[in-house]
Fold these 2 entries.
Entry 1:
Amino acid sequence: MFKNEADFEKLVSRLHVDAETNPAHRENLRRQMLSVFNKTGQQSQKRITPLGVFRRTIMRSPITKIAAAVAVIAAVLIGLHFAGNPFAASVTFAQVVQPILTARTVSLDILVGSQENKSVIHDEVMGSRIRRTVSNVQGPDIIIDLEQQKMLAIDHGKKTATYLGLSGLPDLKNYVELLRETITRLQNSANFNVENRGSEEIEGKTYIVFVASGDNDTVTVWADSKTALPVRIEQKTPNMLIACDNLQFDVAFDESLFSMEVPAGYVVQDAGGIDFSKSSESAFIETLRIWAEIIEDGQFPDSINLQDIVKIGLKFDQGLKRAGLTQQQQTEVATRWGQGLVFIRFFKGQGQWHYAGVGVKLGDAETPIFWYQPKDSDTWRVIYGDLHVEDVEEQNLPGPELSDRQSKILESSRQWEKQEFVGTEKDLWHVTAAGEIAAYSYMTLIKMPQDTNSMYIKLPYAGAVLESVTLNDEEIPFTQLIKNRYEIRLPLDKLDQSKMNLTCSWVVNMEALEKVDNGYRVKLQGLIPVTGFTFTTVLEEDCGLEFAAEYVKDPSVRSLDSFTRKDTAPPAMDLGACVLPIKKSD
Amino acid sequence: MAKLVEQAEDDGLVLRARTQADALGQLYELYYERIFRFCVHRLFDKEIAEDVASGVFLEVARGIHRFAGRTEQDFGNWVYAIAANQANAHIRKTLRRKKLLAEAAGSVRVSHSTDNAPEPDWPGLYAAILKLKPKHQTIVTLRFFENLPYEQIAQILNVKDATLRVTVHRILEKLRSYLQTVKDVEA
């Protein structure tokens, strides 16, 4: 029996295991590996991430990693510094906003994104300190000290703490202070318009509603009709919707919850800092690189707006895990990513910047993804998909088609988030001898908007190709936006509300499916948000495949109903994944 | 700023390997033997070890394009982590524990001790190791069969160095307890 570690080491050292390598295996594996490497490189366009599995894992396991929390919270902090907006003054309005001006402590929820798909930031404000949580970031407590310009992420479960510096911002303010300042400034201005919309009843309670507007922004305040206290404030800008909800004033918080001190015995990490005064193109390029390489698995994000940044936490965490970085490296990457965001949030160039990276792969030297005009410059700086930068004359800037495509991509995401088109869907897959799946998605539309006939759909696989679309058996046109996203133009003159049957026929190669032990993993995804979904597979006679015996006792059975869901509420596109239990015929 | 040793030691080979086959080939030559040996020590069957090592390097080939590490050490830690996961997955799938034990017993030769120490009961020891959690089994292999330093094992398994040392201490206590129980029963 061994006594200690050294003893155990000696014992193991006396065990000799034959671990001689086999040169033939070594050489074969090398060839095989390099072949896979080359194929993966060439076919990266076709490579898919098992999103169904990925998302379910996320749902079960909220973020606990400090790095992702640091990234999201810092991004939110950067973003919200631009949320200050014009308020207008009137006697009644002034009465309503009075508590914002005088409260010592405030508790509020900040909602970013559309009503259907919003992220919630909960802030508790005491003096210069904010205790913040974000709905999709769980685990560490986040305390931001605006006076010390420091953020502390502390995980009491794991006894770890991370400090992040927030330097270089001359006038760091929390959201409530921003509101105060804006209100005070604007109460002296006569240029803004305030409209009293009267009372509005929400869930049995009556609120007085004021709408203040100026430039491109609109601010709406809901105040309790009895107490005149504001309970909700909503700001709309062209690209963003931010709302403060559940406002409470002079809440008796426990001061210790706002402490920036780390208890003894905790492991403390210094994550460096974000310097808000350092706004450089190179730092922004590094942010784009991290975004594409780590967060989005090889391609640039659909958009770089605040509402997308706030939702990024889950993706960020998974990306860091995929990248195989140490905890310290993860935090460092998160900080670098946040630093680069300063460039667009504190944009110092002329006019506006333009982003068109949706669907562009990292390394694409031909496609422009971002362009802007530096201050006092006659030319524009254009960043391409391989992240090289060129100085370009105005007449040679990317054409409007890129901006148009970008806006359509954003519109498609918005349409799905807002569930403008809703239906039920039956997917029927035919597995063919050519190793392809010929899929038919039979949809019945049960809801569609009044103001558009552009319906966007998303096929479940990046390599899937839409072949035809019919409405009530009549073929209708469609255009591809990127990869598996398409725009279908519904013919208004042929729409019959009592009969809205749409069939999308599409193909995908079997290789796009993830192989698992007992068959193939299949993404269960509606082409639009659906309330019901069924999935059936048919194996064509000569396809060389059959269903596994444990699922169908009779091998001659060629059709299998794998999934049925009814009454999904709210309507959803992603319904998870299932296994298609097929194997090669004996 | 956060301390990032890796930035100072930036290694072009790993960065090149993301896009260049010859660079990946060089990394393969550096790591094939180490990973194969780790698999043998984890699974005690050369054929299975070859299969698992194949899985490891094919996963490397598929994932190197988006690997964010920069140094050879980052790469090594990543490859070992993949190998540890794949070996654990194989053991989980191998329901016939007796088969594993038999293979392990037959694959090991015990050298004679010069200090009259008792002969190690290898089959008994391996049976005890198999009773540990998969992660703890990996730690035993990396620490005592591969002789990797604590610091590197901590990075491979993404745990703190101090935690790892405590874990090793507890693992050895468990092994002692298992072996003692068997000894008592046999007596």
Entry 2:
Amino acid sequence: MGALITAPQWVGVLVGFAVGGLAECWGVANPESIIRLARWKDRLFIGCVTVVGAFGVLLLYGLYASGIGMHFGLKPLYFYGVGIGGVLFGIGLALSGYLPGTELMALGEGRREALFVIPAGLLGAASWTLLYQNAAGQWLVHQANLGSVLVDGRTIEGTPPFGLFLGAIPYALVLLLIALLIPRFPRSKHVCLVAHIKGSHDEGNPALHDVREDTVAYLLEGSIAKRGGRAERVAYAWSSEPNIYSKVLVLVALLLAITVVLAMVLHQVFGESTTYSWLVGVLALPDFAYSKVALASVGWEPFSDIGTFLGAFFAAVLISKRFTAFRSVIPPSWRNRFGNDQWRRALGLFAGGYLMLFGARMADGCASGHILSGIVQMAASGIYFGVVVIVTSVIAARVIYGNASEQTNLRPV
Amino acid sequence: METLRNKPTSDRCSAPEVKAGRVIAGMMILGTLATVVVAALATGNATGFSPNAYAWFLTLIVPGFLLLGVTAYYIDKRPY
């Protein structure tokens, strides 16, 4: 194979900047977007991750087959640790509305909630560092450990590059099919293909019209955007777009896929949560076994995390105008269920952020390292983790939010 | 019924706000470039793993102050 390129660590800032900026425009920095995913009311994340995965896997293994060296980073599949970590991650996600990467994006959007959820994440990462030190932690990562395997049980090292590319084709088709068959919004009865054939995006559907208006309302709530301004139109046209296969969403997915693959060409897989363990090692627990692993193995992640924050900050101030200047903005799903009390929300954020990072470090990755980068690499662990997280978060959200409305401008009864 | 298409558009930016917006945009672009330059200088163009923690904290300085500055400007403005 071709020689490996290894870019300097600071290039991670640029890679993170691209991911943070694109994802912020998507709307995932807003906790309501993640809560609605868990409540199965807005499946944009599913559609986009599958489309990114489909583009990314073809690009990744196509380039690899053509002789370009890759810094693969398949996470090991240890059933108990990844499974239990996924369960904790899913509960934390439903409770807080954040992923490790979107916490940084939320800081870039000037969300006050980030000031609670990031320290909670550091505490969660520290707890895993402590647990890893004893027998229970070792059992979780070593028991039923199949190693770094692909979804079909093969390994990258044991498979010819062209064979990997051939395997990527049906895999990508399955991912595209999943995106096709899961409409973004539940009351939208069409699948995207039907919408394309009809030449419309279901615009005549009044339920869809309402949900798009509500999506714009929660995305811009408390922000620096002006009513009737460009940011509002951009949010309506891009961020509430119901069709996963619309030009704009496909373009964003393509750019993200290129960025994720570029990261593997240049240095390492894209991830977000290792930085938390690295920081715990740097600031508090340097002599613990897991800290030593994190300190030695972390690459440009701390820099790409700064880039993620900066990219979201840049996009929020200059493009999407969703910068909230640290005003109190409580996600509609939460306040319709639990009220506007800031301390109650802070408690939920802290518990959710803690569980999420504890679970992410137990599973050795988060939505970026495990799910996004894992799906792009056809990693069995990434798919297993992703399925556990989604199933758990949907159940947890059902328990937490019940039938409470998600409407942004719900009038008090 | 008020929809996105017929919402009032009276709260457009005033001239000073437009000017301030340009200053903020300039600061954001310069701040982003400065962050990359600081990261490159602080890490000494290192390519390996296990980054230097001091280099990382140095890289945080520009975006940190930028965040404070932009927040200080927008915190008094009327939210959406």
